[in-house]
Amino acid sequence: MTQQGKHGSGDNGAARRLMTSVLGVVVGFLVVALLVFAGVKIFGDRGTTAASPASGSPSAAPAIPVPKVPADVLAKLPRATTEGKVANAPIDLRTASEGRTINIARDLPGFAKPGADPITVIPKSQFGSATWLPVINQRSGWVQVRLPARPNGATAWVPAAGLGMAQTSWSVKVALGAGTITVSKDGTEQGSWPIGQGMAATPTPVGQTFLLGSFVDPKQTFSPVIYALGTHSDTLDTYGGGPGTVAVHGWPTQEGRIGKVSHGCVRVPPAGLAIFAKLPTGTPIDITA
Asked: Where are the transmembrane segments (predicted)?
């Protein structure tokens, strides 16, 4: 029996060793399989993220290709300036930019929609300063910007790659019904004043617009500086020798800057004019009835 017991113990030990080896192999395969699965999952997810709709951020390459526009086609396109008119531009007078702006650092074609035919050329400067336009939408590496040209509310899409973006905390509200202009920063009011606005026959146009630039007109004495907006008179094609651009400017007398007294421009007191000097171009301006 002792002999049988020794043989029995040896067989059991061999079986245990065999079982341990088999389990080790199985566990090893399971570990390898899990590692492979995890690797595929991790790297697969990373690849999906890179090609996901999030790549529509301005810094990413456009998912919608940018058409090549021949030089002769560009030369025939209308220029998006305060003197220009972009007849085929999509119109949007309501969408707020929330302070998002983009610098058009080079003369750039604008498109009716991403990847479509060009409708305009946006110059890199306005009134001698760099062009900063409000961004009201973005999609797959493209951004929709407000244009300073007619008709009011004109917009265009541009590829965002290589262009600088910024966020301004300044905003302006012109309430025509209340007869006031209010300038805010970070949502906090910095100043509010009564205004002069367009007469009944030449009303100040309503809708979302922006600060396009500033200039000094040596031919006039009513304001030391004029702040041009990205909107135009709806009733006048021109006034004062200009293209009917609506502006914010001063006026030498108080009675001349209160009520419906202008051809569409917004007249403000010296304090309002001074605070406008702090605003960056592209600052959103909401004009309401």
From this structure: 21-43
